[in-house]
Amino acid sequence: MKRVLAVVVALLCAFFSVGVASALACPPPPRMDGATGARALFSAQPDISALSDGDPFYYTAILHPRPTTTHSKIPHLPFYTGFMQTNDTYRFLTVAEQVFNLVGEGKHGLWRVQENGMVREYLRKGATGLPAGADLADPGNLATLERDYAAFLPDEGAGGYKDPFEPLNAQGMRNFVDLPITHARYGGRYKDHEPIDLPHWYCTMSIENFPEAAKAAGFAFAQPGANKVGPLGRRAGLDIKENYTNVLRLEPYPDARAWVNVGDETDVHWKAIDVRRTNAEFYLYERPFFNMPYLFLTAVFDDRHSGDFRYVRPDGPYYEGLRGRRPKTTVTLTPRFSLERGGSSQVTGTRLYGVHHPDRPAAYGDKGGGACPQKGGDWDGYPDTKGGAGWPTQYEEVTPLCDGVLVDLKFFANLDGRPWNDETKYLANAGAGQRSVTYNVQEGTYGRFTDPYFTERGVENPHAAHIGPKETLRYRSVQPPVGYVKPGE
What is this structure's pTM? Predict the structure, then answer.
């Protein structure tokens, strides 16, 4: 009992010792000094062990011996909870019965970015690398690329990131290389990949390493339903593992919406997007940002009729590798969205970092900015005006349209990959593993009326029956019980 009380107290302390502030847009400036930005959390030093390192089966802790299944032999499933934040705005994650939930603020601002079909790999610390003039397509350089460069250098922290304006190191060797996804470096994994012709609209959900959400998110990413990317997500490049290390497709709650600004830059008016006519997919993903892992949320859209969202730059090794396929090669600067109440509208972004950021310089000093970067590409030194809206693998010409699209942070995902409306899921014979199940019951005749209203009239209960001592149910099917994968296995 003491253990259970300790867990409950820890949960209450963790959840109520932090306040939920205003919603915010994307993304937070990196904290190159290694600070996380969770000032209140780390100054107060609450016990958050129940969120990070606690027992995911704590709910059986008071039972001895501790059961691992229900009476019908259905395995118990772990429960995780956690939170993540940027700029003192908090989002909450839970995993229960293999259902992942993410709930945060409504009408959260998004930025548009689009992958260019490339992967940027950085020179490893202490490695030699390739000289400036080296032909990256030369098979003779493949071994050096594989040995000396990587898209993510987890052991090097923020130091693994290289400034895009410093392409060479002091020895004249490449600090980074940009390779198309069809390069031999990737072993043919993407040789038949559909053209990456859609943008996605993203925002940062966490600080670096997302410490208070790591257990919940790590568990979710390890499950069978994770890292399954839909058709729109593939066309946005979300399945390129070198860029997106983990991906979880989400479904919005019935009352959650994505919203588009149908006003202008100063007279704003967001209306709900009709996702039946403007197709949409939503994802939580993990990606290195300045070579540090963060969590992001993103939406991918494609209008069924206009083709406004589609684009591939007609230049470079990725385009040349499309082998005669003919993607749309002009950017639609302000694509049209279908609206729930009829009609459609072009999106208009704001000139701001985010509509919930009235004074970023006061909060972040000379790193605060507050203006929309107005172009795609590497974030680099924002608010230096050369900085872009995201990563170096993204087109500059696909502009962010900051907060032109908002989304309600109210999502779920079935981590086993199967919906609950499957009539064969969660049947009680799953634990027995067979279609016929025999039940032991206390024998007797059940259901005889004793109310004088019936006995005086000689009325008998048509459902009265002699039951037991054994009763057998024959199910139409048998499926394994819902299970889970332990992270790392």
Answer: 0.90
Q: Contact 449/43 with Cβ under 8 angstroms?
A: no
For residue 67, is the peptide bond before it cis, meaning its omega torsion is within 30 degrees of 0? no
E strand or H helix at 337: strand 336-338
> CA–CA separation, 39 vs 174, rounded Å?
38
Say yes or no: 155 and 110 in one domain.
no
Q: Which helix (H) or strand (E) holds 259?
A: strand 258-261
Q: How far is CA 3 from the centre of its chain?
A: 32
Rounded to whole angstroms, the Cα distance separating 241 from 2 reads: 44
Same domain? 27 vs 163: no
Residues 376, 390 contacting (CB under 8 angstroms): yes
Do residues 328 and 197 touch, judged by C-beta distance below 8 A?
A: yes
Per-residue confidence band for 48, with pLDDT thresholds at 50, 70 and 90: low
pLDDT score of 31: 45
Residues 320, 458 within the same domain: no
From 34-48, 181-195, 210-224, 237-251, the region with the lowest mean pLDDT:
34-48
Q: Alpha-carbon distance 101 to 251, whole Å?
A: 10
Q: How far apart are CA 119 and CA 139, in angstroms?
A: 18
Q: Contact at 8 Å (CB) between 373 and 400? A: yes
- What is the percentage of the chain residues whose pLDDT exceeds 90? 83
Domain that holds residue 89: 2-115+191-357+392-414
Q: What is the mean pLDDT of residues 417-446?
A: 97
Which helix (H) or strand (E) segment holds residue 284: the answer is strand 278-289
Please give the average per-residue pLDDT across 64-77, as a whole number.
Answer: 96
Q: What is the pLDDT of residue 51?
A: 59
The reply to whether 311 and 438 lie within a common domain is: no
With CA atoms as reference, report the closest residue to 394 among 443, 346, 345, 331. Answer: 331
Mean pLDDT score of the chain: 90
Q: How far apart are CA 329 and CA 314, in angstroms?
A: 6
149-150 and 258-261 as β-strands: parallel, antiparallel, unpaired? unpaired
Please report, for residues 77, 94, 352, 487, the alpha-carbon distance to residue 54 in angstroms, rounded to integers and kept in the order given: 15, 14, 40, 15
> Residues 418-434: what's their mean pLDDT?
96
Claim to verify: residue 242 and residue 176 sit in the same structural domain: no
